[in-house]
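Recall that a protein's primary structure is simply its ordered list of amino acids. Everything else, from secondary elements to tertiary packing, is in principle encoded there. The following example makes that idea concrete.
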Amino acid sequence: MTAMVLSCALVWAVFLALHLVLNGRWWPWLAVSLLPPVALALVPLVLLGAASVTGDGLAAALAAGCLLVAWPQNGINLRGLLARGSGEVGLRLVSWNTQHWNQGGDPDRFYAFLRALDADVYVLQEYLNGFEGGEVWDIDDEERLRAAFPRHHLAVGNHSVTLSRFPPAGPPVPVGACSLRVDLRAGGRVLSTYNVHIPVQLTVMNPLRPAFLRDMRRRAAARDREYAALVADLRGNPHPVLVTGDFNTSAAIGDIRRMPRSLRDSIGACRAVLPASWNARARLRLWRIDWAFTGGGARVGSYRFRAAEGLSDHLVQELTVTV
């Protein structure tokens, strides 16, 4: 038993070393890094418990080291135990991947849900129709959007929609091929909102087919371009910023480290210890792939994930933001 526990601890330590070295640097590792982030905590905790039973000090040391080294990537938010609202009254914002904009659903129910969110700013992704891994179709729902939100300013671009009660400070700016920047005049300041949608890592198909690797490599290159465009625009932006949307990146995926260190992850204002935004239709959600960052003087007072009532596979991000 002791030898088995030590062997498992050694295997996990080798795997973790490879993960830390290759994650975010070698595109095939994208498939490996899709593991639920909490596994980076659960596996060493189980090993630590087994080592304490067998009395194997070396296995215990390996497990504890693995737990500590991978802690930033396990998705656990211990700050949620202490998170409280700041009490500041700011603009109310929702960010949501609509999963192909109500494709095949009831449009009346879809728009009623959006209106019920009652946000000052809506940051919505996947303003399109299509199917995973294949062709997508542009849509034009602007007339209905304007009718449903007559007090909001509308910006559309890169398959994204931003609706705001605050007037724009300029035309919307496409960022890369999948994200949209909209500058808003809010509270006497200009707040730059980034509506982000990073491409997904892979298409569900037979992983033994050559087409699987070709598709994953193409998607990895597209992700590189989108992250590079987003970071370049952020570094040249002098305004307070709110960067939110579907990053298709969990805490266990090294790509999220590309975000500038000047930005602050809003999860510190969330009360969930294990925050997750996908899959909204599953009872057990293990991945947080929707994020919100602030910088340049913008702050998040409260942050939570809200049920999408079966309308999408992503939960809704709800935030209050002050500038």
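The chain is about 30% helix and 25% strand. The helical segments are 2-22, 29-32, 39-54, 57-69, 99-102, 107-117, 142-148, 210-235.
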